[in-house]
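Reminder to self: tokens first, then the designed residues, so the page reads top to bottom the way the pipeline ran.
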């Protein structure tokens, strides 16, 4: 195998994934939403309602891997307008490093996070696996939604405004602070700053459940998307691909979390390409944006118009300081450069 054929860490390139899905994805008359770029859930017709199914792994090193697994998977169920109800997990533990306390900690985190969201753990699989140097948790979340309340990423329309709820990059900030704490202290960061950044996991938090619920109940919302690996920029590429549209994003309007901007600058990372769980992308009819922003303001949640969906021929554009350039895409998340 030539070195040029080896893919880097991160998501498969969108073009490759699109080609593979076109070749191997199957159809079913009850499958309302199946495999596709930007679509993070599968939707199955159950007669009187839709069943919404999501799977996502947690692969970055973290002491709160079980907690992450619940919230990351619940987020995507919520962005479809559905309520997450049941969860299964495959827990892979490292050979030679797994203790009873480690296994207990992960199961405890899964349990506590599920209870806090009204989700029931219904099954899964756990094993100690050869070749791993850290735990990996793969979650499967299942929810339900009324047929007239389903929201898909492909529902975004040309002319919609793009709203980012909360800020970026929340998850990257927490991961950097947790995993690089010793290095940050050596670089002169005080403990208070490091701890504040590490708390981003909970405050402002990686959950978008409340934000998605508000958007799902608002008129004019055509799509929601949860930007994770590859950050906001890649999330916008995925949204546009699913909708068959282009994007114009105003980089100067993107809400950057203070500690996130500072830590990304410290390590030379682009916050637009850093894992961004905790933010929510909403595509909404222009005439309805004011009402949505008022709903978020009433709830004490930050929401910012950062762009618009354009005709597909106009491409993926970023405007920074009045200068127009291609919107970057990060198939390998920026944070992978630290590990």
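Designed residues (339 positions):
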């Amino acid at each position: 195998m030539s070195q040029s054929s080896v893919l880097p860490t991160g998501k498969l390139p969108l073009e490759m994934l699109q080609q593979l899905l076109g070749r191997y994805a199957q159809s079913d008359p009850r499958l309302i939403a199946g495999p596709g770029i930007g679509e993070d859930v599968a939707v199955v017709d159950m007669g009187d309602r839709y069943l919404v199914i999501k799977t996502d792994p947690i692969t970055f090193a973290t002491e709160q891997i079980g907690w992450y697994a619940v919230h990351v998977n619940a987020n995507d169920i919520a962005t479809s307008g559905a309520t997450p109800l049941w969860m299964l997990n495959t827990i892979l533990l490292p050979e030679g490093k797994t203790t009873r306390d480690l296994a207990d900690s992960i199961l405890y985190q899964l349990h506590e996070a599920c209870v806090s969201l009204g989700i029931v753990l219904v099954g899964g699989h756990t094993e100690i696996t050869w070749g791993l140097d850290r735990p990996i948790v793969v979650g499967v979340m299942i929810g339900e939604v009324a047929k007239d309340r389903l929201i898909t990423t492909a529902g975004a329309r040309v002319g919609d405004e793009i709203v980012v709820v909360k800020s970026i990059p929340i998850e990257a900030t927490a991961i950097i602070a947790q995993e690089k704490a010793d290095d940050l202290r050596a670089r002169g960061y005080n403990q208070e700053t490091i701890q504040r950044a590490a708390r981003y996991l909970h405050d402002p938090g990686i959950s978008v459940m409340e934000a998605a619920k508000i958007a799902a109940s608002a008129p004019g919302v055509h799509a929601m998307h949860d930007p994770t690996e590859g950050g906001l920029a890649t999330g916008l590429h995925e949204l546009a691909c699913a909708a068959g549209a282009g994007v114009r994003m105003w980089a100067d309007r993107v809400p950057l979390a203070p500690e996130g901007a500072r830590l990304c600058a410290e390590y030379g990372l682009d916050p637009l390409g850093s894992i961004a769980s905790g933010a929510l992308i909403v595509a909404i009819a222009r005439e309805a944006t004011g009402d949505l922003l008022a709903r978020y303001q009433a709830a004490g949640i930050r929401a910012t118009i950062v762009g618009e969906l354009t005709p597909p021929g106009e491409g993926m554009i970023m405007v920074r300081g009045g200068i127009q350039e291609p919107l970057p895409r990060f198939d390998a998340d920026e944070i992978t450069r630290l590990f």
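The chain has two domains: 3-149, 153-338.
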